[in-house]
Amino acid sequence: MKYSVFILLIIFLSACQNEGLDESYQNLNDENSDNENIFLDLELPSNFPEPTYEIENNRPTQAGFELGKKLFYDGKLSSTGVISCGFCHIQDFAFTHHTHVVSHGVNGALGTRNAPSLQNMIFMEDFNWDGSVSHLDAQPIVPITTEFEMNESITNVLTKLQNDEEYVQLFNAAFENDTIDTQNMLRAISQFVMMMVSADSKYDKVVRNEGSHFNEMEEAGKAVFDQKCAGCHSGSLFTDQSYRNNGLPIDPQYDDEGRMRVTGEEADKYKFKVPSLRNIAVTFPYMHDGRYQTLRDVLDHYDSGVVQTQNLDSVFIQENGQLGIPLTEIEKDEIIAYLNTLTDDNFLLDDRFSEF
Ligand code: HEC
Ligand code: HEC
C-alpha cells in the first residue's frame, strides 16, 4: 500500500511541477504590488547547508503562512473532524507525538511508526523513516489519506474547505488565482512548515561564536560524539540523510522493512533514515517505532544491545567484528549533556507556530 502511495505521489508531483510553479511565483510577485500579502523573511542559519527545498518556487507570504497554519491545526483534514496535523505533531516536543510510541489517528487507530520531529524540513532530501516521499509539498497527502492517520480523501477535504467562508477568504488572500485546490492547499501547508527552522540552541550559539561556551561535560560529550556517532549523525543537521541499520532487534509485531518498502531492494531491508538529533531531549520515545523511552536507553542499545541483522551497518556499528559502539557510563553522561545543548527553546516556544 505504501508503495502505491509513493507512485501516486510521483505522478502527482510531476503533474504539479509542469503546471507551472514558476507562474505562481510570478503571481505572488504581482499580488505583492496590489495588496498586503508580504513575503516573510526566512532566515537561513549560517552554519547550515543550502536548503534542498526550492524556496523561490513557493516563497512564504504572511497570508500563505497563516493559511498553512490554520490547515495544520484543523481537524477538518480528517474524516472524523478531530485529527489535525498538530494532533500528532506537537510543538512543545519539536512537533512529535509526545508519549506515543507509535502515532494514533482517527478513532484511536494505531499506526506502526513514531512521529518524527518537524524542524529544518527545507534542508531534507527525503521524508519519513523510509524516505517514501521526496518532496515536502507532497507529504500531507500521506497522513490525510492513510486509514490509520486522517483517513480522508483529498476531494472531500477540498469540498469541506470550499464550503467554509473563512477558507475562501484565506485562499483568496494567499494565492493570486484564488482557488481552493490541491496544489494551493499543499503549498500553503509547506509555507507554514518551511518556516520551522530550529537553529538557535546552545550548540548553535557556540559554533557560531555568539558568546556561548560548552561546559566541561558538554565538551567531553562532543568529543565522544564526534568520534563515535557523527559518522551518521553528521553536520549541523545531525544527520547525513542516509539509510542505515543501527542494529535494533527486529520487532516481530511490525517487522518493518524500512527503506526496502520504497526501493524493493534486499540491500535496504531494515535500514531507516538517520534521524536528526536536534531537540532530541524532548522528542522521546525514540527510534522509528518509539521503542526507547530515554536517551540512556538509546546509549545502552548502542553500547550493549546491538544485534546482527540483515544489512547491519558495517562501518560504524561493528569494529573488528565487535558488535555495537562501546561506551563507558561516564561517556554516556557526557554524550547526554552534549545532546541537551541541541534543545532550542526559542523554537519550541515560538508563538508563530503555536496553535493558540
Ligand atoms: C496520526 C498521526 C499523524 C498525523 C495526523 C500527521 N502526521 Fe506527519 N507523520 C506522522 C508519522 C508517524 C510520520 C512518519 C511516517 C513514516 O515514517 O512512515 C510522519 C511524518 C511527517 C513528515 C516527515 C518528517 C521527516 O522527518 O521526514 C512531515 C513533514 C509530516 N509528517 C507533516 C505532517 C503534516 C503537514 C500533517 C497534516 C497534513 C501530518 N504530518 C499529519 C504522524 C502523523
Ligand atoms: C551507523 C549509523 C549510526 C551511528 C554510528 C549512530 N546512529 Fe544513532 N541512529 C541511526 C539510525 C539509522 C537511527 C534510526 C534507527 C531506527 O529507528 O530504526 C538512529 C537513531 C538514533 C536516536 C533516536 C532518534 C529519534 O528521533 O528517535 C538517537 C538519540 C541516536 N541515534 C543517537 C546516537 C548516538 C548518541 C550515537 C553514538 C553513540 C549514534 N546514534 C550512532 C544511525 C546511527
TrEMBL record:
Binding of heme c 2, residues: 229, 232-233
UniProt cofactor(s): heme
Organism annotation: Mesohalobacter halotolerans
UniProt: heme c 1 binding residues: 85, 88-89
Record's cofactor remark: Binds 2 heme groups.
Domain called Cytochrome c: residue spans: 216-343
Membrane-spanning intervals of the chain: none
Subcellular location(s) per record: Periplasm
Protein name per the record: C-type cytochrome
